[in-house]
Amino acid sequence: MENIVMEALAKRDKCEAGNEYDGKLWGARISSVFVVLVASAFGSLFPILSSRYSFIRMPWWCFFIAKYFGSGVIIATAFIHLLEPANDSLTKDCLGGTFDEYPWAYGIALMTLFVLFFCELVSYHYVDQKVTREFGEGETGNSHSHFGDENIYVKKDVDDQHDLSKDEEETDHKCGAESTQMAYPDHFSHANDHQDQELVGTPMGRDDREQYLGQLLNVFVLEFGIIFHSVFVGLTLATSGEEFKTLYVVIVFHQMFEGLGLGTRIAATAWPKNRRWTPWVLALAYTLTTPIAIGIGLGVRTSYPPGSRRALITNGCFDAISAGILIYTGLVELMAHEFLFSSEFKGPGGFKLMITAYLIVCVGAGLMALLGRWA
Q1: What is the pLDDT of residue 308?
Q2: Which of 70, 77, 308, 361 has the fewest CB atoms within 10 Å, i.e. is most exposed?
Q3: Per-residue exposure over 137-153, b if at least 16 CB sit within 10 Å of its own CB, e if not
Q4: Contact (CB, 8 A) for 180 and 348
């Protein structure tokens, strides 16, 4: 029995207890806290500021590019910057045991994806029940409201189409004609539909209420997955050795692009007046997470063992969980929702706009995947 215990301890001791910190470039390491802070703040806060204040409002196409570029960044982050490092951490030879027998990084990401899907099913059921209590049974809502108005993808009966008045038809025709000329309002049309009575003077309907709550859930899930990842990014940068210079530059761009993806989603959500501070809190949380983690890493730079058994398992598990969250959010919410179930690409010129958005997603994903060459 004693021999078995000793063998187990010996196997655990195979993992390196130290780190690669070499004590060089101390000034640059200190500066990284503030540079990463500024990059993260710009990425996450600028879209919100631009959507709120007219004096810095950007043209609609800037938001269009930022929105879809950010989607590509988030998806590439999930596969290249999270799933691969998680697999690398959980397949180290020194771990042994079950880690040699099963690809736990992919298994944890898969389990996270299904748990997240189940939580979303339960959440939307709760939202549906809540909205039903608020509006009664008389109104019918969408079965899965974050996909948008069901009229977009469900063909209406002919009789229903004849119920439109002449004025409504003329208004719809005018809006359709203007959508290709001025896409800025159309880009945020789903957000404007969710404004409550305090903001635009009109009550929020059942469908709009469901869509707003769905957007709220999606933003919180995205924030949760990104912040998980940001903690380990900061620790890795602070305790790195010879590769510090390369990591420094890559992580600055990484944080700015990832913040841009998160910030545009937060800005596109129509926050009611009683939650006007929520987008700022979410953006600030992302902004501060990595710089704080860098500061903690610098504080424990000589004692933090990123190569130890405990650190490898912890880092690998959290990266795999974050990967599962961002894969689900990126593919389902950001790609399927925005491309397949959105009215943004309907009407004349819609297909050309959709191809443009697709190419922007590819550029964002490609650039973020390229950064994976160094970090």
Answers
A1: 85
A2: 308
A3: eeeebbebbbbbbbeee
A4: yes
